[in-house]
Amino acid sequence: QVQLVESGGGLVQAGGSLRLSCAASGRTFSGYTMGWFRQAPGKEREFVAAITWSGGSTYFPDSVKGRFTISRDKAKNMVYLQMNSLKPEDTAVYYCAAGLAPSLAVPGTFQYWGRGTQVTVSS
Q1: Are the beta carbons of 79 and 24 closer than 8 angstroms?
Q2: How many angstroms from the chain centroid is the CA of residue 67?
C-alpha cells in the first residue's frame, strides 16, 4: 500500500528555517504530483507547494512564494519542503500528499496523504 510519512516538524523561531521530509513508498510515483498542505486549528486545509514527480515543475501560492521551496529525490523516494523566513502564521500541521492530475488548491483531488507533522513558529 502507498505510504507517505512526514518528518522534520518542530518548534522554530520566527525568521528561522525548517526542512520537512516526506518518505514515499508503495508504488512508483511517476505521473504523480506530490504536494504539501497545512492546516491550522479552526482553519481550512491550505495548499502550500507541489512538484511533479517526473518533471520537477513546482507550484506555490502567494502566501509562501519566495520563502518555501519544494524538491524531490527520485532515487530516495523523498519529497522535501524547505521553509525559510518562517512566520507565526505558518504554524500548522503539515501534510504530504500525492495525486494524479490533481487540482492543486483542492485537497480532495489528492489521493494519498500522510498523517502530518506539526510545525510551530514562535514569535
Answers
A1: yes
A2: 13
64-to-25, 30, 60, 89 alpha-carbon distances in Å: 27, 26, 7, 11
> SS3 for 51?
strand
Q: Are 96 and 26 in contact (CB under 8 A)?
A: no
| Nearest C-alpha neighbor of 73 from the set 57, 58, 53 | 53
Distance CA 15, CA 97 (A): 26
Do residues 106 and 41 make contact, with C-beta atoms less than 8 angstroms apart?
A: no
pLDDT digits (tens, 9 = 90+) for 22-79: 999 999 999 999 999 999 999 999 999 999 999 999 999 999 999 999 999 999 999 9
Q: pLDDT tens digit string along 105-119?
A: 899 999 999 999 999
45, 79, 92, 85: which is closest to 65 by C-alpha?
85
> Any residues with CB less than 8 A from the CB of 5 and at least 6 apart, and which?
22, 23, 25, 96, 114, 115
